[in-house]
Design goal:
The chain has eleven helices and eleven strands. It is α/β, with parallel strands linked by helices. The protein is elongated, with a radius of gyration of 23 Å.
């Protein structure tokens, strides 16, 4: 018995397709995971086993093999839990294999079968939309996924949709036609952020004029002066001079924040971010990277303001 489910891997902001292949065959009882999986992916065996037990199901007493293809691509993160569980259920015959053919799935499983939020849902939804597929994700990420244009027309059967499920049981019931998951709604955050007003600065007319020119033209700005001359005070007022993000800019900035797991409740914001890292921040914290590449301060300031106070003191800038 075989089944396959589509999911994705992340390399920075790039989304790469991954095919989760599940086979149940006679042999010694085992649950093998192959395909260059990291520790978090390997531990999904126990999360899947516990989630199925919570639903009253048990793995068959046979050899179960999960292959994450392409095998030479590193797989990282807990979002593989849901596609692995769906592949196992399809191979067991609990759900139909054809019901998963048009979807990309990602999500983390709790031991009781509920689905938890995972980073990167917005880029994954945009990728799924670009290849003509729907998206299966946790309910907590449904509003985020809806911004990709999926599920906007719940009554349009020809349009890929978002299945945002609160639990594995609810998703199984939907795929079997026993209940209907409501389509998630894309929402804007209520931007209540208020930045200091440049009108509060008395004097400094030349500096304020330069700040306005930089804001109008999108220029970089280097401020040099003795301590106490008002450099930080001026920089903190720069975001207040910038217009709200345009829809396409808000989507780009939100994609980066989604990969960083910083999108909160999945609502997009039109407020420009002001990032002010300390000069003791490492190079990886500034530009991103690490064993599992994550956005750094430079990326998180996309379409916003990156303020590097005490610029010569940063370890990565010499």
């Amino acid at each position: 018995m075989q089944a396959r489910v589509r999911t994705v891997a992340f390399q920075g902001i790039d989304v790469l397709p991954v095919d989760v292949q599940v086979m149940i065959a006679p042999g010694n009882i085992a649950f093998a995971m192959v395909g260059l999986a990291d520790k978090a992916v390997g531990e999904s065996r126990e999360r899947v086993r516990a989630a199925l037990r919570a639903l009253g199901l048990a793995l068959p007493p046979q050899r179960l093999t999960v292959n994450l293809s392409p095998a030479d691509l590193a797989k990282e993160g807990s979002h593989y839990d849901l596609p692995i569980a769906l592949g196992v259920l399809a191979a067991m015959g609990v759900i139909g294999k054809e019901s998963l053919a048009g979807y990309v799935a990602l999500g983390e499983l709790a031991l009781d079968g509920t689905l938890s939020r995972v980073p990167g849902v917005l880029p994954a939804a945009i990728y799924a939309s670009s290849v003509g597929r729907g998206l299966v994700c946790p309910a907590a990420c449904g509003g985020e996924a809806a911004w990709a244009g999926l599920g906007a027309a719940a009554n349009d059967e020809e349009r890929p949709s978002v299945l945002a499920a609160p639990s594995l049981l609810a998703l199984i019931n939907h795929l079997r036609g026993q209940q209907t998951l409501p389509p998630p709604q894309a929402q804007l955050a209520e931007d209540s952020a208020s930045y200091p007003d440049i009108a509060e600065i008395k004097g400094q007319e030349t500096a304020k004029r330069v700040l306005e020119v930089a804001a109008a033209g999108g220029h970089n700005l280097l401020m040099i002066g003795p301590p106490g001359s008002g450099k930080s005070m001026l920089a903190q007022r720069l975001p207040g001079l910038l217009p709200p993000l345009q829809p396409d800019e808000a989507l780009e900035a939100s994609m980066v924040r989604s990969l960083a797991g910083d999108l909160g409740d999945g609502k997009l914001s039109k407020t420009r971010r002001f990032r002010d890292p300390h000069h003791s921040a490492t190079l990886q914290a500034l530009i991103g990277g690490g064993a599992r590449a994550r956005p750094g301060e430079v990326s998180l300031a996309h379409h916003g303001v990156l303020f590097l106070d005490e610029l010569p003191e940063f370890s990565g800038i010499r």
